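Example 3.2
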Amino acid sequence: MASITHFLETRLRLKVNTVKSAVDRPWRRSFLGYSVSWHKRQVRLRVAPKSLKPSWPSFAPC
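Structure, written as tokens:
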């Protein structure tokens, strides 16, 4: 990750947030609510599991 960070900061003059940045397999990471999965030897996009969790509290019916 150090070499790509160096390239982004020196050649492209971009800031890299090391707290948010990570290097991992595509199926272990999510991007904009989607993640990559394998299905019958084909790569597919799927909704990331974290995106399926409701962000609001559930209310009990009255």
